[in-house]
Amino acid sequence: MENPDWQFEKVVGDPIHKYIRLDDLCWDVVDTEEFQRLRDLKQLGSAYYVFPGASHNRFEHSIGVSYLAGKTVERFKNRQPGLELTEGDVRCVRIAGLCHDIGHGPFSHVFDNEFIPRARPGVSWSHEEGSEMMLEYLVEENNIDLDAEDVRFIKALISGVPSHAEQRDGKRFLFDIVANKRNGIDVDKLDYLARDCHYLGEQAGYDGQRLLEFSEVRDDQVCYYHKEVYNIYELFNTRYSLFKRIYCHRVGKAIEYMITDALLAADPVLGISDAIGRPDQYKQLTDTVLRQIEFSKDEALASSRDIIRRIRQRNLYRFVCEYLIPPNWMTHLTKEKINENAIIDHQPSGSHLNKEDVIVEWAKLNYGSGDKNPVDSVKFYSKHDHHEAFHISKERVSLLVPERYQEVIIRVYTRDTNKVRLDEESFMV
């Protein structure tokens, strides 16, 4: 039954979902320092330096994910009463959508994929772990009305990997909504793809609203109407296309490496990497850390400031060359054979290349499941049989769907723009 007081609830306009209405508990979470910091984290990190339209933040994305998560679980609750979903289930799924990204660090994936592995070698850490840490801290610091069991459940929903204790009496399908580890189709992806396309001026090739409308729970997992199978292929192709052209843009990646180097140079002074275990410090860590370094007068931050100045003046690390590895060469070309040391060892005589001059990137671009077809892990249902869930092989969809689902590209960059030609010659030897 619809809430009779809906007209008095807080509503926000959104360019993707038009009008978003969240419950009071969600707004209690939104109105905290820990969540508000997401306003200062660009959704696409360094890509904003290449694509000026990509100015949106983790803040609005997280609200959008919460909206879609709540809409999805409420529809299951209303249309499939046999699932025995409770208001507590709905509440926790909404909060999981809202808080799934509160653990992101400065410039999003630059922080956990590039900076932390180099600043803290041997430490395994992800932004999902950061989100779990910040969720606990947020609830405690702000007296949010969630008990310990709810917090454990929400953390598991964020990670997408339930333990036996969080299964909620067989409701495994709840873990498919925010962070789907079965096949990657979740409301996080549906929001960020639509939102990124909007701000980049791109046209998405799939219909996310149809996917949600034609989803049901079968075999304790979220399944889709069989006629949506090609729509799902288009979803994954849109993801690949954005990675190929936007997220892994070679200039954007060069700036990523510059930001990483700047943070590493500043880390001994500012203790940036220490914050991953300190939520009270982590909540102060946003993209504004570059401004903090840039305006500092501390001489110990001089080298970091120099790198940031290069970014401001567009004196960027230079892309040298790239090589798309043919499938039959995958086992022959490895990181042990192609890396910074190997390039230095093969430099032309008298080149004077140093290891610090060279960056070698191994980029894996795929449909989200490595070299596997993610649609093989999706189950479908038919209007003729409302109980059976089944897979659909790609041969039954189209003869033009991909044969391969991952490509590996080796890229070389140089920190010294005067040595571009030398790097290219060393790589080609």
UniProtKB/TrEMBL annotation:
Limits of the HD domain: 58-193
UniProt keywords, alphabetically: Hydrolase
A GO-annotated cellular component: nucleus
This protein's record includes keyword Hydrolase: yes
CDD domains reported in the protein's UniProt record: HDc
Any Pfam family matching the protein: HD
GO biological process terms on file: dGTP catabolic process
Any one GO molecular function term: dGTPase activity
UniProt protein name: HD phosphohydrolase domain-containing protein
Organism: Piptocephalis cylindrospora
Phylogenetic placement of the source organism: Eukaryota, Fungi, Fungi incertae sedis, Zoopagomycota, Zoopagomycotina
